[in-house]
Amino acid sequence: MRSILWGILGALFFIACDGKIKASETKTLGTTWGQNNEVEFVIPQMDSLKKYNLFLNIRNSNEYPFNNIFIIASMNFPHGKVVTDTLEYRMAASDGTWLGDGIGNVKESKLWYKENISFPEAGNYILTISHAVRNNGEVGGVSQLKGILDIGYSIEETTTQ
After folding, report:
1. Class of the CATH-defined domain 20-157
2. Which of 48, 73, 127, 149 allows an S-S link to 41, with CB 3.0 to 4.6 Å?
3. Are 81 and 148 in contact (CB under 8 A)?
4. What are the structural domain ranges in the chain?
5. Phi and psi, residue 17, nearest 5°
6. H/E/C letters for each residue in the chain?
7. Per-residue pLDDT of the chain (161 residues; tens, 9 = 90+)
């Protein structure tokens, strides 16, 4: 009986881990995400001949007071080039229901960042992420953003080359 249970658990593990994720990391932010708190990730060297999809992963609680989030993401290439994007993602439906996955008051959202990209330069890339959330009608951003618990990235190998 025990060997059957281990066999089933092993099969589920291999089905769940399809090998597409080539790199990922998540950092915990604490109770608030400061406006000037850039989160930095060092992306390991990837195969320059393969194509990848890059995702941002955000874990939020019910304390998050907005239905969307604005992110500034910068990719620093090994040889000095920097590409910066300002991104907006919906975090909740129009009825207030969170769009992420999870049970209870914590949801995780896997958000598209870059699609079908390559990493042509040898060395480590550095991804920096900060928020640019503002209250309606205000020029300055939210200095301490509540409800964003973790931020991270994941890189998956594309199925088509």
Report:
1. mainly beta
2. 127
3. no
4. 20-157
5. -100, 85
6. CHHHHHHHHHHHHHHHCCCCEEEEEEEECCCEEECCCCEEEEECCCCCCCCEEEEEEEEEECCCCCCEEEEEEEEECCCCCEEEEEEEEECECCCCCECCECCCCEEEEEEEEEEEECCCCCCCEEEEEEECCECCCCCCECCEEECEEEEEEEEEECCCC
7. 544 434 443 443 444 445 688 999 999 998 899 999 999 999 999 999 999 999 999 999 999 999 999 999 999 999 999 999 999 999 999 998 999 999 889 999 999 999 999 999 999 999 999 999 988 777 788 889 999 999 999 999 997 65
Cβ burial of 9 (10 Å; 0-12, 13-18, 19+) is exposed
**Residues with Cβ < 8 Å from 11, sequence gap 6 or more?**
none
Sheet holding 106-117, edge to edge: 21-28, 148-157, 52-61, 106-117
